[in-house]
Each structure stands twice: as C-alpha cells, then as structure tokens.
Design goal:
The structure is a single chain. About 35% of the residues lie in helices and about 25% in strands. The radius of gyration is 17 Å and the shape is globular. Strands 6-4-1-10-11-12-13-14-15 form a 9-stranded mixed sheet, sandwiched between helices. Strands 3-2-8-9 form a 4-stranded mixed sheet. It has a two-stranded parallel sheet with strand order 5-7. It has 9 helices and 15 strands. Helix 1 crosses helix 8 and helix 3 runs parallel beside helix 4. The chain is of the alpha/beta class and about 290 residues long. About 45% of the residues are buried.
C-alpha cells in the first residue's frame, strides 16, 4: 500500500492539564491511519524523556514514523486556552523539529507516497525547510500534496508561503490566515472566494479548502465548484488539532473515492468530534470512519 505522509513538526502541546503529543504532521498521520491508510509521520525528536515519550506514544497507537533523534531538545509549545477553548501558542525556539535531517529512508517513502501534508511552521529553520522540499521533490507525479499553511507567530515569510503553494495541489487555509496571505500576495479588498480562486489559478491548484471556525468551511474547486458546510454545534473541550483532523479526514476520504462534497462532510464531522475531546489525537468512533 502506498504511504500517506505527515511532514514537519512533532512537539508536545503543554496544556493546563498537562503535556500532550501533537504537531500537525503527527496529528494528520494519526487521523489518516484511523481511516485504514498506511500513514507515516516524518519529523525529529531529541535524545530526552519527551523524545522517548513521543516515540512510545506512536508505537502504542500503531502509528508508523521516520523520526531521527537529533542533539536538540524535543519540541514543546505552551498552549493557553480562552473561554471558548481556542488556543494561543508559544513555541520553544531551536528544537529537534528545526533540525530534521533528510535520510535515505525518507526519500524511499517519499517515492511511494500517495499523499503528503506539510505546513509552513516546520520551515522556520533552513535545515527542516530543505528536508521538506527534498521529500516533496521525491514524490511521484500523481501524489496529492496538501499545503496546510498553519501560520504561527512570525514563523513565516512570503518566500516560504509561495514555495509551499508551488509544491502543492491543494491549499488548506483558515479565514484569518487568508487575510494575512491576501496582504502578502497583494490581493487586498477582495472577498474570500475571489482571493481563493486567484491563488488557485495563479498556482495551478486543484482546490482550496478554507475553514472559518464557527462560520463553516468551504472547498473551492475547478470549474467554479464550491462546497460549503456549516460547523456543527458541539460542546468544545478544546480546538487543539481540530484543523489537522479535518485535513486527515478530508484526504483519506478523497483517496477512498468519495466526492469532494462527501469528503468535506466527513471532515467537518470528524473535526467537530475532535473539538469535544481534550488534545489532538482522540480515537474516532466507528460511525465517523465511513
């Protein structure tokens, strides 16, 4: 079976109730694997207790990984939640996922990838940025490449974002990020659909997935295709990892032959369920894994 790769940062979300393993690639790979796909997380951890804990957690969850150990501390991010459970992140600098080495094993997995999801955060350092680009360049022509922009702090610039979109055939972005990208790419004053369609055309994307929190989500596709789904009303525990679960469920559903609209519906319901649980990697109930 061809691999589905989550590529980038592995870190611990330090929440008020304790530390939980997270990072977009691990979250994405975990949720894709729940749909029965052969998912692999690619990152790096340190030679420390948190690194041990990260790899043990992957092993316990049956999640495959290529995660070299490097002489830097395993990544952590302090997460504070507001009254609505919406997180604010403070990232530790110069950690293991800033130093992901490109290995022959990564290249071999990339060559048989069916899909790969990557973001901008892990590209804050030159070492990991180069590794991410090498993995993407090694993927087959038919590989689905999802750029889940994931803007955090000031860990991005126009060049990294443009290069990421050029590598991708699907862009996933939220409404706040779209405002920032619109300014950086010189698309001021346009409505959200116009901005998404300009990015699609300019970078030859198959689709743009736009999430708008409680205001629903859109998928803009080729030939004017639009899918809109409202956000289900649920009791939110926290929203950590909800976007990654959306991307994982959407990707897995597309690969299983679902229509874009069906994949969108499944992604919305999975993401809403993850919001009702603490942390980014809850086990999904069978009824959501269609």
């Amino acid at each position: 079976m061809r691999k589905i790769i989550g590529l980038g940062e592995v870190l611990f979300d330090v929440l008020p109730q304790g530390a939980k393993l997270g990072g977009a690639p691990a979250n994405f790979a975990f949720h894709v694997s729940q749909f029965g796909y052969d998912a692999v997380a690619i990152s790096a951890v340190g030679n420390d207790i948190l690194g041990d804990h990260a790899l043990k957690t992957f092993d316990d969850n049956g999640l495959k990984y290529i995660i070299p150990r490097v002489p830097y501390p395993t990544g952590t991010v302090n997460v504070t939640l507001d009254e609505a459970g919406v997180p604010t992140y403070t990232f530790t600098p110069d950690v293991a996922w800033d130093h992901i080495p490109f290995t022959p094993e990564m290249e071999a997995v990339a060559k048989e990838a069916r899909a790969v999801c990557f973001g901008s955060l892990a590209q804050r350092s030159a070492v990991s940025r180069e590794t991410i680009n090498k993995v993407l360049e090694a993927t087959p022509e038919d590989c689905l490449k999802i750029f889940d922009i994931n803007l955090r702090g000031n860990f991005y610039n126009k060049e990294v974002l443009q290069q990421g979109v050029r590598h991708a055939n699907i862009l996933k972005i939220n409404d706040e990020e779209l405002i920032i990208v619109g300014r950086m790419f010189d698309y001021p004053g346009l409505d959200i659909e116009e901005k998404c369609r300009i990015i699609m055309r300019r970078y030859h994307l198959k689709m743009v997935v736009l999430t708008c929190g409680t205001n629903g989500s859109y998928v803009f596709g080729e030939n004017g295709f639009t899918s809109f789904k409202p956000t289900p009303k649920v009791k939110v525990a926290d929203t950590v990892g909800a976007g990654d679960s959306f991307t994982g469920a959407f990707t897995a559903s597309l690969l299983s032959g679902k229509t874009i609209e069906e994949a969108h519906e499944i992604a919305v319901n999975v993401s809403a369920y993850v919001c009702t649980k603490k942390g980014a990697m809850p086990k999904l109930p069978q009824k959501l894994i269609k």
